[in-house]
Amino acid sequence: MGRKWNNIKEKKASKDANTSRVYSKFALEIYVAARQGEPNPESNQALKFVLERAKTYNVPRVIIDRAIEKAKGGAEENYQELRYEGFGPNGSMVIVDALTNNVNRTASNVRAAFGKNGGNMGVAGSVSYMFDKTAVIGFEGKSADEALEILMEADVDARDILEEDESIIIYGEPEQFHAIQEAFRNSGITDFTVAELTMLPQNEVALDPESQEQFEKLVDALEDLEDVQQVYHNVDLV
What we know:
It is found in: Cytoplasm. Pfam families: TACO1_YebC_N, Transcrip_reg. GO terms for molecular function: DNA binding. It comes from Mesobacillus selenatarsenatis (strain DSM 18680 / JCM 14380 / FERM P-15431 / SF-1). One of its GO terms (cellular component) is cytosol. By secondary structure, the chain is of the alpha+beta class. It has 3 domains: about 10-70, Integrase, N-terminal zinc-binding domain (Arc Repressor Mutant, subunit A); about 80-130 and about 200-235, Alpha-Beta Plaits, CATH 3.30.70; about 130-200, Alpha-Beta Plaits (2-Layer Sandwich), CATH 3.30.70.980. The chain has 8 helices and 8 strands; from the N terminus they run ααααββαββαββαβαβ. The strands form 2 sheets. A 4-stranded antiparallel β-sheet has the order 3-1-2-8. Strands 5-6-4-7 form a 4-stranded antiparallel β-sheet, with helices on both faces. Helix 2 packs antiparallel against helix 3. The protein is globular. The two termini are about 15 Å apart. The model has no long low-confidence stretch (mean pLDDT about 90).
């Protein structure tokens, strides 16, 4: 797969260490998921998934509870889920997922971030066909062989099982996310280092140092936008 998930998360954690940005993005995502169905993760799969992700990022419980209570209160804030696609230097590809209550503002800001950092926006579908939506589950305490045995006993399929540093990373179909996680919970795993539904590139590209520096500025500019929730790309930055 070519993605070092632990290194990626450590880099994000370091970048966000002195800000509340990651928490505010999760608060909005939790609020929107809770508004889309029942504000109860047991009956709302979208909310359950967001809460699983939030746990791996150590989002404080008070922020989670506040977002859910806000949704229960029937606040009239309407957000749209948007996806933008574009290109960076030397064949790099980028997907940007956003939640916004102002489409014009978000589109303008995303376009400006691309334009100021050596990239350009593409049309819908110009990039996403080169990515696969994938469930990624990570944990410690098992070997790859043990992980495979647990999945087989639970009759759950996975695309791939890799060992990264001291962790096991499971790649699976999106609809298998909860089944994969439940299989390992039943085996005694209670903490997950990764719990994501992501867009994985079918092929990664390596950039020369100058292009990589420019590309990282592009990704940083996009991730810094208030309305942007996720940025996916096909560049090997690790």
